[in-house]
Write a structure and sequence with these properties.
- The protein is of the alpha/beta class.
- It contains 17 helices and 17 strands.
- It folds into three domains: about 70 residues, 3-Layer(aba) Sandwich (Rossmann fold), CATH 3.40.50; about 200 residues, UDP-N-acetylmuramoyl-L-alanine:D-glutamate ligase (3-Layer(aba) Sandwich); about 150 residues, Mur ligase, C-terminal domain (Protein-Tyrosine Phosphatase, Chain A, Alpha-Beta Complex).
- The chain is globular, with a radius of gyration of 22 Å.
- Helix 1 runs parallel beside helix 2 and helix 9 crosses helix 10.
- The strands form four sheets. It has a seven-stranded mixed β-sheet with strand order 7-6-8-5-9-10-11, sandwiched between helices. Strands 12-13-17-14-15-16 form a six-stranded mixed β-sheet, with helices on both faces.
Length: about 450
C-alpha cells in the first residue's frame, strides 16, 4: 500500500491515508508528503476526493469504506488498482510463496543498472532506492511484486511472469495446497501473448504443473524458461558474485539472472555485476549492529514467518556463521497460520542453539480464529520433541534487553560466547531490535 501511495504522489496526486497505529512506514510516508491519520473513521476522508484505495484486509464495515460508498465513490482494493496500472505498463510480475520481495528487488536493480529506467513497486525497502519500496522510472517497464494473498495477483496482466515457488501459505484464505496452485495457474494464464515465464524447476509444487503450464503457453506463444540450481555452471557463477548467504537467495538470484540474460538478452557479465552490488532487503537477513552487552553478539532482523522460510534462513545463517552460537527470537505471525502449520513449526527451528519464543502477533482484519494454538504451547511441544534443544518462552516484552540478556546468559553461559541473534517475524518484532542495540 505504501509503495502505491508513492506512485500516486509521484504522479502529482494529493494523497492521504489512515492506519491503525504509527510505524516506521507511516512516518516515512508522512515525510514524503502523505497526510497520515491514525484510527479508521469517516472524517478521515477529505471532502474533495477522487479515488479510494484499500488494503485487501479492510472489511466492508470499515467506516471509511462505508463513507466512500455513501458519497457515490467505488472503493478499489490494492490489487484492483495495481491491475489498472498493469494494463498500461509492460509488467515483470514476480510471485511465489517465498522469496518474491528479494527476487523483485534483484530484477529491479538489474534493470536500473542496465538503463531500462523501470518503475518499481516492491514489498520491502531497498537501500538502493534510498530506503523506499518504490521507484519512479520514465520507461514503460513496471517491475512488480505480485502477491498471492486473496488471489491479488490474478488482477495483473504481465509481459514476464516469475514464480519462485508454491507452498501452503495464507491458509486463512486458501483451502489447501491445490487451491494455492490453482491461483498460481490463474496468475500465469494472464501473461500476455508473446510474453515469457520464468519458473523454478527445483520447486516440486510448481514443477508438477509443467504440462498444464506449457500447454497454454504454447497456445499464446509464450516462452517458458525453467531455472534450476542443478545447472551447476550458472549456480557457481552466481555463488561467486552474490554477497547474500543461503541456498534460497542463490535460487532467487538465479531467477533474476534468467530474466536478465535469457528473457531480456542482457550481457551475462553485466547482470552478474549488478547482482554482486545487491546489498539485501529490509528485514531479510538485515544486519542491525551489536547487542548492548560486553561480549560480541551480532543482531539481525528477518521477516521469516513461514516454516519453509524459517528453515531456509537458519540454514543461511549457519553457512554465514558456522562457529557462532545461533539464537532465534521468534514472534509467530497470525494465529490461523500458527494453527494450520503447527506441526511444521515444531520442526522449523532445528539448527538453532537457542530459540526464544514471543507471543503471537495478531493481524488486524485477519485474526478472527481464537488463538488456542499459542506460542507458549508451541514452546512446550518443541521441548518435548527435541529434549536437548534450548527453548524458552518470553511472555513479557517489558524491559526486553534485560529479559533477553538473562535468557542468553542462562542458556549459553557467562561470559557469552560469540553469538548471532536473529529477531524474526513478520509482525512488529523489529520494533524491539533498537532496544537491544548499542547506540
Amino acid at each position: 500500500m505504501s509503495a502505491l501511495a508513492r506512485w500516486f504522489l509521484a504522479k502529482e496526486w494529493v494523497v492521504s491515508g489512515s492506519d491503525l497505529e504509527t510505524s516506521e512506514i507511516t512516518k516515512a510516508l508522512a515525510k514524503d508528503g502523505v497526510t497520515v491519520k491514525y484510527g479508521h473513521k469517516k472524517s478521515n476522508l477529505p471532502p474533495d476526493l477522487a479515488c479510494v484505495v484499500m488494503s485487501n484486509a479492510v472489511k466492508k464495515d470499515n467506516p471509511e469504506y462505508v463513507e466512500a460508498v455513501r458519497r457515490g465513490l467505488r472503493p478499489m482494493t490494492y490489487p484492483q488498482t495495481v491491475g489498472c496500472l498493469s494494463e498500461v505498463y509492460d509488467v515483470i510480475g514476480v510471485s511465489g510463496s517465498h522469496g518474491k520481495s528479494t527476487t523483485t528487488s534483484m530484477v529491479a536493480l538489474i534493470m536500473k543498472d542496465l538503463n531500462f529506467d523501470p518503475n518499481v513497486i516492491v514489498g520491502t525497502n531497498l537501500k538502493e532506492f534510498k530506503g523506499r519500496n518504490f521507484r519512479l522510472g520514465k520507461s514503460r517497464w513496471l517491475v512488480l511484486e505480485a502477491d498471492e494473498y486473496k488471489r491479488a495477483f490474478t488482477h495483473y496482466d504481465t509481459k514476464i511472469a516469475v514464480v519462485t515457488n508454491i507452498d501452503r501459505e495464507h491458509l486463512d484464505y486458501y483451502k489447501d495446497l491445490r487451491d494455492v496452485q490453482r491461483a498460481f495457474m490463474e496468475y500465469l494464464s494472464r501473461v500476455r501473448e508473446g510474453g515469457a515465464m520464468v519458473l523454478n524447476k527445483d520447486d516440486r509444487n510448481l514443477f508438477v504443473l509443467k504440462k498444464r503450464i506449457e500447454a497454454f503457453a504454447k497456445k499464446k506463444e509464450i516462452k517458458v524458461f525453467w531455472y534450476s540450481l542443478l545447472n551447476q555452471k550458472e549456480a557457481r557463477l552466481l555463488a561467486r558474485s552474490l554477497k547474500l548467504s543461503g541456498k534460497h537467495n542463490l535460487s532467487n538470484a538465479l531467477a533474476a539472472y534468467t530474466v536478465g540474460v535469457k528473457v531480456l538478452g542482457l550481457s551475462q557479465k553485466q547482470v552478474l555485476a549488478s547482482l554482486a552490488r545487491f546489498k539485501g532487503s529490509w528485514r531479510r537477513m538485515d544486519y542491525r549492529g551489536r547487542m548492548r552487552v560486553k561480549e560480541k553478539v551480532e543482531v539481525y532482523d528477518d521477516y521469516g514467518h513461514h516454516p519453509t522460510e524459517i528453515k531456509a534462513t537458519i540454514q543461511a545463517f549457519r553457512e554465514k556463521y558456522p562457529k557462532a552460537k545461533l539464537v532465534c527470537v521468534y514472534e509467530p505471525h497470525q494465529a490461523k497460520r500458527l494453527k494450520m502449520l503447527y506441526q511444521e513449526f515444531i520442526d522449523a527451528f532445528v539448527g538453532v542453539d537457542l530459540l526464544v519464543m514471543l507471543p503471537i502477533y495478531g493481524v488486524a482484519g485477519r485474526d478472527t480464529v481464537p488463538a488456542r494454538y499459542t506460542s507458549e504451547n508451541l514452546t512446550k511441544l518443541i521441548s518435548e520433541k527435541y529434549p536437548r534443544s534450548k527453548v524458552q518462552y518470553l511472555g513479557d516484552k517489558n524491559n526486553f534487553l534485560k529479559s533477553l540478556e538473562g535468557v542468553l546468559r542462562e542458556e549459553l553461559g557467562s561470559p557469552l560466547p560469540f553469538s548471532v541473534v536473529v529477531m524474526m517475524g513478520a509482525g512488529d518484532i523489529f520494533k524491539l531490535t533498537p532496544e537491544i542495540l548499542k547506540k
